[in-house]
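A quick aside before the break. I want you to see a complete sequence-to-structure record at least once, exactly as it would be stored in a machine-readable document. Don't worry about memorizing anything.
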Amino acid sequence: MTHLPPISHPRDPLHGITLEKIVTTLVERHGWAELHRRLPVRCFLNNPSVKSSLTFLRKTQWARERVEGMYIAELE
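That is the input. The structure line, written in tokens, reads:
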């Protein structure tokens, strides 16, 4: 069985992309300090980790929307 690349959904650029993948990608590109500078949320400043950030972002809709927006903006 061959693995096909994920099919992108025409109206949702985040279709098939997990929040963990988004956070990991942004950290790899920018680092925690730059993420905090661009999106000033404490989970990116105080002992940042992917796990703690995911916990916060899953409970805090406005912060999740900003992180997803940053990721989408970098796709273009």
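Two observations worth writing down. Residues 19-75 form a domain with the Transcription Termination Factor Rho, Rna-binding Domain; Chain A, Domain 1 fold (CATH 1.10.720.30). The chain has one domain: 19-75. We'll return to this after the break.
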